[in-house]
Design a protein that fits this description.
Layout: E1 34-45, E2 48-59, E3 63-67, H1 74-82, E4 89-94, E5 97-98, H2 104-109, E6 112-115, H3 127-136, H4 144-153, H5 169-181, E7 187-191, H6 199-214, E8 218-222, H7 226-232, E9 235-240, E10 243-249, H8 250-255, H9 257-264
Parallel strand pairs: 3-8, 3-9, 6-7, 7-8
Antiparallel strand pairs: 1-2, 1-4, 4-5, 9-10
Helix pairs in contact: 3-4, 3-5, 5-6
This protein binds adenosine-5'-diphosphate (ADP) and magnesium ion (MG).
Adenosine-5'-diphosphate (ADP) is lined by residues 45, 48, 50, 68, 70-76.
Length: 267
Amino acid sequence: MTPDSEPKEQSGAVAGPNVRQTPAGDATGVDTETLLQTQGLTKRFGGLTAIDSVDFAIEEGELRCLIGPNGAGKSTLLKLITGRHEATEGKIYYDGADVTDLSPHERVRRGIGIKFQSPAVFDSLTAAENIRMAIQRTEDGDFSESIRSTLERVGLPEKGDVQASSLSHGQQQRLEIGMTIALSPSLLLLDEPVAGLSMEEREAIADLVRTLNDDGLTLIVIEHDIDFVDRIADQVTVLNQGEIFQEGSIEEIRSDEAVRRIYLGDA
Ligand code: ADP
Ligand code: MG
């Protein structure tokens, strides 16, 4: 990767109705179609540099997979984007604005949703109550219609009254995705959504992720299983030791010798 810390050139194109317009004279110079961009993003934990001057960008409507060995910094990068971790150095631009110093709550409000690696469903509540809990954090009112449509969207239309602890692992993962999409994010970050799932459950999540993307949601998905990545993503970013090691199509990544050495386990 050649470092490219300069903001992308302004396209100068006339924005269509669906193109987010960076305000004239905006100091960031972030490209209008770039939804998320980091510049020199760095996170140190004491002496350990978990994310090392990363310039990462994703366009609106993309479905990007983030892969890399254990400890590469994948989860840390997502946590920086959501504001769960504070950046040590560098900038994060989202939707044309500098969000580096915004609270996690404010970033959710602006449309950044995340499903973390560890399960976050409330076991003793029903599926519907879990969705309600997620929405209530940011809104007031009657949510029955949102809850119904969300459960349908994640393929759990008949599970509303079922206690979350009685759902299969795969259904719980889909419920968690429901809890994030119920807030209508424009960017969804998924950290290992199929870890520990059966083939059948992986298929269901792959279908869901692709459908969400087809419906216009921009996604960044961290995943270890290269076959799953192959099924859902066109573009892949490989992270290694806190740096972007390679970026390209799944075919390019799969055939890249150096990537195979560090990641795919080939000698
Ligand atoms: P990945 O998700 O790619 O497996 P992580 O982002 O979880 O990697 O971790 C990257 C590096 O940062 C690892 O060396 C990990 O031990 C370290 N790390 C992650 N979170 C913390 C933390 N809260 N405190 C200290 N070190 C951390
Ligand atoms: Mg991780």
